[in-house]
Amino acid sequence: MDLSPANAGGRAARPPADVAAGRWPLPASLLVHGLLLAALLALSQARPLTPPPPSSFDVTLIAQPPAQPRQAPTTPIPPAAPLAPAAPLAPVLPPAATPARPAPSRPVPPAGIIHPSHLLAGGLLKEAASRQVRQALPKLDPGERATQLCNIEATEQILAANPAVYPDTVHATAMADTDVEGLKVVAPGAAYRSRRQWYGVSFTCTVAADYQSVVDFSFKLGDPIPRAEWDAHNLNVEDAEE
What we know:
- The protein is α+β, with helices and mostly antiparallel strands.
- Helix content is 23%, strand content 17%.
- Strands 1, 2, 3, 4 and 5 form a five-stranded antiparallel β-sheet that branches.
- It is globular and about 100 Å long.
């Protein structure tokens, strides 16, 4: 049996191939899309759109630094007036030269009687250098031994009183005799030699009972003895000439 469209046997005709395949012709497609767009527009006007809720986010507050106090405007300091020129300094003159004093021709002795508190003969005799003197003194008679012990004390005390003087010997009976009474010796006219020159001295001396030291002594330094008087009093320049 022939089923083609040419046969008009009461059967409905078959749709075109595009419609059967699900594809609409272009005019029909445009019409359908237009109808859909119109329906959407009508729906949007009938129901108002609700905006979506805002999204949450963290906010950090930054504290601003405190405002600095405003300083009062500083008054400008006017420039200082120019200083007047200083007066010229007077020239400093060097001090006048002091004429040099001539060196004294002899040591200047202390004035008055000297009574030392520290006695020296006993300590000097204990030294090793005084061994020969220490051995010779006991061989003398008491008066001479006391006189020689006082001469030793006088030599040390003259040096202590005036270091510029360097006595190397003392002659108790140089200008006058001594007065010896027991342990006491008085020499009013003694002399001492220093640097080949002779000078006067007087002293009063008391020795210890064992003749080993001096217990009391006082003296006074005198003037230089004129050289013309040396021979008459056996005052030699050196010990070798005695």
